[in-house]
């Protein structure tokens, strides 16, 4: 039995990664979402994730609980080993990753497809401000990082502008996959 591909959704803060992932899972029942482990402090919400303290994360890492782990934005992120079981039963598995870890993810998962979300600067600024998780200074740093390129050496990248309506973004993503997969994934 072949393993389902891992689809990494990446992009700058405020681009709508969590919304896109949730909408893809809702529209395409064969696509499953990986729930990450994050050391995000209480009071900072966002995606559906498992919140752990730094000490618990480091113990999980030492115990081999993660298929992939990395630091970003002062937090620690982990993709649980359970992704292997998800890949056996799904048509594809979605995970929100950081751009800096993509080459490692490609090595770990093979068959990695990257959906690189972009949005106009004014859209990013409005979304970051609306979510209220970061100070103005942090928002400015995140907007500066939005221009960072993807690493060289990725096998398959699908670039999508998510400045407009979410349904348009999802339609575009699904249309970019092979037609036979698209038929299985869409409700």
TrEMBL record:
It comes from the Bacteria. The keyword ATP-binding applies. It catalyses: alpha-D-ribose 1,5-bisphosphate + ATP = 5-phospho-alpha-D-ribose 1-diphosphate + ADP. Pathway: Metabolic intermediate biosynthesis; 5-phospho-alpha-D-ribose 1-diphosphate biosynthesis; 5-phospho-alpha-D-ribose 1-diphosphate from D-ribose 5-phosphate (route II): step 3/3. Keywords: ATP-binding, Nucleotide-binding, Transferase. Its EC number is 2.7.4.23. Gene3D superfamilies: P-loop containing nucleotide triphosphate hydrolases. SMART domains: GuKc (SM00072). Coiled coil: none annotated. It is an enzyme of class 2 (transferase). ATP binds at residues 11-18. Residues 3-181 form the Guanylate kinase/L-type calcium channel beta subunit domain. Belongs to the ribose 1,5-bisphosphokinase family. Catalyzes the phosphorylation of ribose 1,5-bisphosphate to 5-phospho-D-ribosyl alpha-1-diphosphate (PRPP). This is Ribose 1,5-bisphosphate phosphokinase PhnN. The gene is phnN.
């Amino acid at each position: 039995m072949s393993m389902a591909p891992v689809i990494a959704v990446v992009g700058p803060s405020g681009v709508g990664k969590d919304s896109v992932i949730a909408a893809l899972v809702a529209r395409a029942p064969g696509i499953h979402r990986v729930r990450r482990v994050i050391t995000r402090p209480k009071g900072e919400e966002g995606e559906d994730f498992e919140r752990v303290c730094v000490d618990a994360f480091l113990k999980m890492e030492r115990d081999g609980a993660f298929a992939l782990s990395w630091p970003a934005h002062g937090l620690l992120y982990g993709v649980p080993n359970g992704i292997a079981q998800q890949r056996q039963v799904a048509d594809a598995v979605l995970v929100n990753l950081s751009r800096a870890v993509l080459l490692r993810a490609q090595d770990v998962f093979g068959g990695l497809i990257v959906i690189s979300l972009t949005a106009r600067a004014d859209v990013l600024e409005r979304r970051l401000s609306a979510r209220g998780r970061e100070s103005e200074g942090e928002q400015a740093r995140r907007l500066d990082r939005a221009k960072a390129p993807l690493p060289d050496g990725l096998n398959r990248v699908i670039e999508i502008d998510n400045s407009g309506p979410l349904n348009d973004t999802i339609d575009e993503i699904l249309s970019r996959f092979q037609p036979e997969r698209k038929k299985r994934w869409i409700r």
